[in-house]
Every structure is written in structure tokens, then in C-alpha cells.
Write a structure and sequence with these properties.
There is one protein chain. By secondary structure, this protein is an alpha+beta fold. It is 31% helix and 24% strand. The chain has 6 helices and 8 strands; from the N terminus they run βαββαβαβαββαβα. The strands form 2 sheets. Strands 2-3-1-4 form a 4-stranded antiparallel beta sheet. A 4-stranded antiparallel beta sheet has the order 6-7-5-8. The protein is globular, with a radius of gyration of 20 Å.
């Protein structure tokens, strides 16, 4: 004979909290957000990632940076799932670079130029396709060190340029080409450091 309240079924566990698997902190870097007419509010972006089942979701700044926990290990499939959700929710051709936060930390630690310079900006170009990063390096050719400084890293390009010229230098114009839209996105080193501190 049953007594007391009926036993509750255990709640379904979200991605990033499945039994036996350890969640890993990831960083989704969206390209082209809040520029060129594509406006996505941070609260709406965070809500979407929560709906996708990720844990500890947090957005950083307004340039399309999302931190979240997941135990999913198929990064290519995870990236595609997020991109599709972004397209469906916000109605634009969404592309992201998806990395573990620990990987981003290693990339940032390898920045080869001056990290603090009153006259120049430090940037990291993240890429999901190593061949495209190699192509950018090859097409950049011999650079004038007074404008662009570009160096290949593991999964990234390290880039430094004069303040106030972030859209005008040869490398800036090269990275703006449609060919690299689906596989690269650029962040200031200060932004990257905020992603690591979050």
C-alpha cells in the first residue's frame, strides 16, 4: 500500500551536467555581431544558450562572446548546433569559433608582441580552419612593420596594428573579405583577457 506523496522522478540533467561526465568551460566567439545591422542583445543571446541546455552561461561585452559549460565532446557538431540555433533565432548567417576556455588561455599566453602599447592595438585572430589562417598569412606577404605585425600561432594569428586603423590596414582589409567570414573572428587582447577572467 502506497503511503505519502508519490516519488518524484529525477529531473533531466542538462548538457554539461550529465552523470559521469565532467563539464568543460567553452567560449563561443560570434562573428559580426552588433555591427553592419546585426543586433543581438546580450540577454537574448544568453537566453538562447540556456535553452540549448548549457550550464553557467555568461555573455561578456557586446561583441558576441559567450561562456558556457558542456560535457559534449564532438566540437564540430556542437558548433554546427549553435550556429543553426543562432540563425533560426536571430535571422542572420551565423558563424562562430568554438574553443575550450583553457585553449583560449594558452593562445592568449602566447601573444608575441607588446601586450600594453599606447600606440598600437593587440589582437588575436581566432580560426576554425587552419588552412584559412595559413592563407591569410601567405596573402599578407611582406608586411610593413609600421602598420601590421602578423604572426602565426597554434590555431590563431597574432596581430598588432596602430590605434585608430583597425579597419584600414592591409591585414584588416584582408580579414574583412567574405572568404574568411565563416572561419575567422578577431578579438582585442583585452577582450580575451576578460573572457579568461569570467
Amino acid at each position: 500500500m502506497a503511503t505519502g506523496a508519490a516519488k518524484k522522478k529525477p529531473a533531466a540533467k542538462k548538457a554539461g551536467a550529465r552523470a559521469g561526465n565532467k563539464a568543460v568551460r567553452h567560449v563561443a566567439l560570434l562573428r559580426g555581431v552588433n555591427v553592419n545591422g546585426i543586433t543581438i542583445r546580450s540577454a537574448e543571446l544568453q537566453a538562447l544558450f540556456v535553452e540549448l541546455g548549457f550550464g553557467a552561461v555568461r555573455t561578456v561585452l557586446a561583441s558576441g562572446n559567450v561562456l558556457f559549460d558542456t560535457d559534449e565532446t564532438d566540437i564540430a557538431a556542437l558548433r554546427q548546433r549553435i550556429e543553426q540555433a543562432l540563425r533560426e533565432r536571430f535571422g542572420y548567417e551565423a558563424w562562430i569559433v568554438l574553443l575550450a576556455q583553457a585553449t583560449v588561455a594558452r593562445m592568449a599566453a602566447g601573444y608575441p608582441f607588446e601586450r600594453v602599447d599606447e600606440e598600437r592595438h593587440p589582437y588575436i585572430v581566432f580560426g576554425s580552419d587552419p588552412a584559412m589562417l595559413d592563407e591569410v598569412m601567405a596573402k599578407a606577404g611582406e608586411l610593413d612593420a609600421h602598420t601590421d605585425r602578423l604572426q602565426r600561432g597554434d590555431g590563431v594569428l597574432y596581430w598588432e596594428l596602430p590605434r585608430g586603423e583597425s579597419t584600414d590596414t592591409p591585414v584588416a582589409k584582408l580579414l574583412a573579405k567574405t572568404r574568411y567570414k565563416s572561419s575567422t573572428t578577431t578579438r582585442n587582447l583585452r577582450t580575451v583577457e576578460k573572457l579568461l577572467a569570467a
